[in-house]
Structures are given as C-alpha cells and as structure tokens.
Amino acid sequence: MRLKDKVAIITGGGRGIGEATCLRFAEEGAKVVVADVNETDVQQVVEKIKAAGGEATGMIVDVTHRAQVEKMVADTVATYGRLDILVNNAGITADARLEKMTEEQWDKVIAVNLKGVFNCGQAAAKVMIEQKSGVILNASSLVGIYGNFGQTNYAATKWGVIGMAKSWAKELGPKGIRVNAVAPGFIVTPMTEKMPEKVLEMMKEKSPLKTLGYPEDIANAYVYLASDEAKFVTGAVLSVDGGVVL
C-alpha cells in the first residue's frame, strides 16, 4: 500500500474527482478525512470506504470559512494525531462571458477556488511544519493554463492555485513539505454534466486519445504525488488531460 497509515484530508470529497480520490487513497491504506459541504455526499463516501475495509471520517466544511477550516484540521489531528496529506480539491464554476459575468459570479468562484485553497493550505501547513513533513496538492485545470471561453473567474482561480503551489513549494520545501498541482483536462464529473453535449464531443475530438477522462484518472495522479514515489517532485504541475491541445 503506497499510502499506508498516512492521514489525508480531501476537500470536495463528496462527489466526482474528490470522491474517487477518497476511495483510491483509502485503497492505498490512507486514513481519509472526507470534507465537503454536503452532508449526504460525505456520509455516502465514508460508508463506501468503511464497507471496503478502509478508515474514514466525514467532516462538513465550507472552505471559504476560515474557522471551519481550522476546526477541520484541528479535529483531524485530534482524531489521528497528525496530518500527512492535503488535497485541495473543492471547487465550483459559475460560467459567463466577460461582458455578462456578474460580480456575484466572480466573487463566489474566487471565494471557493482561491480563498478556500489558501485557507486550507495555510491551516495544514502549520501542522506539517511542526511535523517537518507533509504533502499539499492543489487542484488546477487545463483551463488554468490555457484559459477557456466563458470561464474568466474559473481560469483565474486555477492559474492562481498553480502560483500558490509553486510559491509554497519554495517556502515549505526546506521544512520537509512537498507541494504540487494537478491540471485535469475534461473529466466526466457532475460538473461537466452541465456542459452541452456538442462541447463534450468537441473536447473528445481534440484529444489524441479521442476520449474524456474519468475521476479515477485524476485520483491516480494524486496517489502518485502523495506517495514516496514522488519524494523528489515539488513545485510541479502534472497535466492529466489526454493530450488535449487548446
């Protein structure tokens, strides 16, 4: 088991890529904290992990609220004695063209995708610095690297978390902490279900593999980066996108 006895917090762990990551981490022996705003989703993932013989704890957390994030980290340490891995996966979209995007749409996406990552990263780092070890993984996106029509807010946040990862890698590396980002391409999740079918077909055609990715593809990337197999990898952006060129 590649993550045996490691303690991992995975935000946005109730659905999609977050759920797949929780399940894969548990399969690899990690003690998983499933963190999400939806209590039903959290409990379902925890139950799946326990039914498969894994260990998990559910926590209802809004990553935009610092007090909730700090409590999540404190409760994790109180329960398991340490925190080895943070996967900053929680994220949302609120798409619109630049001229039609509202301030509310901008603020909402920035709050979850950017401030939420900062809140969680800062709280986790304080624990990891004391331990002199840890791994932080930020969920970026192909959109964060290349931009995308109608996603000014989302693209800005996903580029921003790359900047955070690279900055944190420099700051925290001497303290024994690795920080990386994963940039998924178009993945079949509840989020992409909102996209028009013709757009999804176009994305398939852009990939040399002629297919969309699946949550497990991203979860596997997180497992690698969280494991000792990636002990010399920090400040990197791992694109998992099927070779899509925008």
TrEMBL record:
The keyword Repeat does not apply. NADP(+) binds at G12, G13, G14, R15, N89, Y154, A155, A156, T157, K158, I187. It comes from Thermotalea metallivorans. Pathway: Lipid metabolism; fatty acid biosynthesis. Catalyzes the NADPH-dependent reduction of beta-ketoacyl-ACP substrates to beta-hydroxyacyl-ACP products, the first reductive step in the elongation cycle of fatty acid biosynthesis. Homotetramer. InterPro entries: 3oxo_ACP_reduc, KR_dom, NAD(P)-bd_dom_sf, Sc_DH/Rdtase_CS, SDR_fam. The active site is at Y154 (proton acceptor). GO terms for biological process: fatty acid biosynthetic process. This is 3-oxoacyl-[acyl-carrier-protein] reductase. Signal peptide: none annotated. Pfam families: adh_short_C2. Keywords: Fatty acid biosynthesis, Fatty acid metabolism, Lipid biosynthesis, Lipid metabolism, NADP, Oxidoreductase. Residues 6-185 form the Ketoreductase domain. The keyword Magnesium does not apply. One of its GO terms (molecular function) is 3-oxoacyl-[acyl-carrier-protein] reductase (NADPH) activity. It catalyses: a (3R)-hydroxyacyl-[ACP] + NADP(+) = a 3-oxoacyl-[ACP] + NADPH + H(+). Coiled coil: none annotated. Its EC number is 1.1.1.100. Belongs to the short-chain dehydrogenases/reductases (SDR) family.
